[in-house]
Amino acid sequence: MHVKKVMLLIKRSLFVAVPDCDRAKFEEDINRLNISRGKITALVFIFLEVALIAASYVDQKSDMFQNLNLCYAFMYIIMIPVMIMFLWLFIKFGKDITYHRKGINIIGVIFASFILIWCAGISLLDQMSSGQIIVYTVAILAVAVTPLYKPHVILIIYTCVNVVFITLLHYFSKTSDWIFGNSINSTGFTIISWAISYMRYRRQMKTFNDAKIIQEKSEELKRINIELEKANQKLEKLSQTDGLTGIFNRFMFDKMIEMKWNECVCQLRPLSFLMIDIDFFKLFNDTYGHRAGDECLKKVAEVLLTCVKHPLDIVARYGGEEFAVILPETGKEYAWELAEHIRKKVEELNIPHAYSAVSPYVTISLGINTVYPSNASSIDEFINRADKALYDAKKSRNATVVA
Question: What are phi and psi of 143, to 5 degrees?
Answer without folding.
Answer: -65, -30
